[in-house]
Amino acid sequence: MKAIIIDDERLARTELKKLLQDFPEVEIVDEAANAEEGIAKIESLQPDLIFLDIQMPGKTGFDMLAQLERAPQVIFTTAYDEFALKAFEVNALDYLLKPVEPKRLADAIQKLQGLETKEFRPEGENMNNSILTEHDQVFVKDGERCWFVKLSEIRLFESVGNYAKVFFGPNKPLILKSLNALEERLDEKTFFRANRKHIVNLRMIDKIEPYFNGGLLLELKGGEKIEVSRRQTVKFKEMMSL
User: How big is the CA angle at 176 (ends 50 and 187), to the nearest 5 degrees?
Assistant: First the structure.
């Protein structure tokens, strides 16, 4: 598996190369100190994986990805945990904080081994089609605010025009993603399409009551009450019964 390290700090590149010596399946074929150099080397060498810093002189790592027509798998490496990108649109394989811990690196490589290499697509299309489980962490950004949140903590997705509202804790940010696109990416064992406007986290259901016209009314742990359509009620009962 060919990889390129893109980071403006020479010491950070050296340290990561040293850690990667424990993973012979990952071959570091080159490195780059900025986004422009990274783009040239990705196009030339066609690596399977890039380790990408976020904050670099000139273009950021996000800017660099936006310029690529196709990109390999991406593992972000950064000293800052406040940086974020739109969840589900650029689905990085992992996000490692510097100094990189060997255990976290091992987890990222293991995750990589479980995937086939998939191509990056321009914004508006999925970077890959892998299913996101409740254990995955995703980036969510809404205006100037951003979060790095586990899917298990998200209790509800609500359709709002071309956007989806994401409910976790007291937060309800909007992401530019349709509910249908989200449904394709979410693990159906955890996330259930209750109706045309809502996807609920099954583990966040507090109460279930019979409702109008043969449907159900779900009360979530955040207090939200969501109607399950009559059609989806049949599917819900099948899923939840022994």
Answer: 70
Burial class (CB in 10 A: 0-12, 13-18, 19+), 165: middle
> In which residue ranges of the chain is CATH 2.40.50.1020 found?
137-240
- Candidate CATH numbers 3.40.50.11810, 3.30.70.660, 2.160.10.10, 2.40.50.1020; the one for domain 137-240: 2.40.50.1020
Flag whether the pTM goes above 0.70: no
Rounded Cα–Cα distance for residues 190 and 155 (Å): 10
pLDDT in tens, the chain (242 residues): 899 999 999 999 999 999 999 999 999 999 999 999 999 999 999 998 999 998 899 998 888 887 876 778 888 888 866 544 433 345 567 778 889 999 989 988 887 776 543 332 333 334 445 688 888 777 777 766 777 788 899 999 999 988 899 999 999 998 888 898 899 889 999 999 999 999 999 999 999 999 988 899 999 999 999 999 999 999 999 988 85
Q: Which residue has the tokens 């394709």?
A: 184
Per CATH, domain 2-113 is 3.40.50.2300: yes
d(CA 148, CA 138): 6
Amino acid at 59: K
